[in-house]
Amino acid sequence: MLLEELCTLEPACCLRSTTIAAAARLMLRHHTGDLVVLNDLENERQPTGILTDRDIVVRVISADLNPNTSCVGDVMSSPIVIASAQEDTAAALERMANHGVRRLPVTDAHGRILGVVTLDDLLREHAERTQAFLGIMTKERKREQRAGG
Question: How many structural domains are present in the chain?
């Protein structure tokens, strides 16, 4: 399966200049634990970093930084690991494992943000495939039993 078929489209995004407090409110409004940090919100929309709720806790709160004056660009993870929309889920999973990340911004052919794929997304897709395999095995067993095998 290609990432463009699996990723969450139109992810929550912000700029490097966004305050941490504003970023936290964006996460709350979008019901997400991450924001893709873009170079601009209108035209190029190229990802330059990612901010997670964990970044806020570890790099802001525990360091006693003021969330109203600290900016996303000061604490975001960068450089980031990015995936292409045309990439297969297996390649994305391998990249996540190699880099130790749980989220990958997904870009289109022009490098603009398209979506985000998470480890949870890949796990869900794997579980659905596993369930389909189990269904095939069960049907085969029942068919053999009916045939007297």
Answer: 1
CA dist 81 and 42 (Å) reads 22
CA quadruple 138, 143, 146, 149: dihedral positive or negative? negative
The domain containing residue 52 runs over which residues?
3-146
| CATH number, domain with residue 9 | 3.10.580.10
Starting at the edge strand that comes first in sequence, how are the strands of the sheet with 34-38 ordered? 13-15, 34-38, 47-52
pLDDT digits (tens, 9 = 90+) for 60-107: 999 999 999 999 999 999 899 999 999 999 999 999 999 999 999 999
Determine the pLDDT at residue 149: 58
Q: Give the list of residues 6+ apart from residue 39 with CB closer than 8 angstroms, or none.
A: 45, 46, 48
* Pairwise CA distance, residues 136 & 139, whole Å: 5
